[in-house]
Amino acid sequence: MPTSRSAHSASVSSPSTPLRPGPTAIFRALLSLIFLVAGIGHMLQPEQVASRLLDAKLGFLATAIAPAEVLVLLSGIALIAGSLALLTGFQTRLAAMGLIVVLIPITLTIQVGRPTLGPLFKNIAILGGLLFFTTHGSSAYSIDAYVRRRKDETRRTHR
């Protein structure tokens, strides 16, 4: 039996289709892990990460602002804080924006100019995931959703 065009269109996601909370929460959790691991690496091995920055072709752009080890420790703190917020869905949009602010200079100074493009495009893909959460926020399985539900309940009981 042939399907009509409208039946096919209904099965394809559209901008008005709500996000599926389970897969969105899993996506958020998986995306956060790369930042958590990187942030822990920055904190536990700052000398090694700083040497990568110093050896990078464009590393001088960052070290003109502050010493490499200071930048590594500050970015480590930001990566851990942002990853935990993203993981739990706390201030998801703000966490994703903060991670973007950290990811862009890391990408420009460390990944641009390398002989292989894989790490650069990995960061570009990760940037896409962060843009998703910057625009959509978190799903039902998050601290943000819990806070929204509590606010809605409070409003209903005070009417």
Strand content: under 5%
Low-confidence stretches: 4-14
What is the alpha-carbon Rg in Å?
20 Å
Average of the residue pLDDT scores: 90
**Cα shape:** elongated
Given the structure, what is the number of helices? 8
Main sheet overview: none
Helix content: over 70%
Order of helices and strands: HHHHHHHH
Distance between the termini: 53 Å
Structural class: mainly alpha
Number of strands: 0
Tally the structural domains. Answer: 1
What does this structure look like?
- Helix content is 76%, strand content 0%.
- It is an all-alpha fold and 159 residues long.
- It has one domain (21-157).
- α5 (68-88) runs antiparallel to α6.
- The chain is elongated.
- The N and C termini lie far apart (53 Å).
- The relative contact order is 0.14.
Secondary-structure map with pairings?
Layout: H1 5-11, H2 21-44, H3 46-55, H4 59-63, H5 68-88, H6 92-111, H7 118-136, H8 143-157
Helix pairs in contact: 2-5, 3-5, 5-6, 6-7
Keywords summarizing the entry:
159 residues; mainly alpha
Quick overview:
The protein is mainly α and 159 residues long.
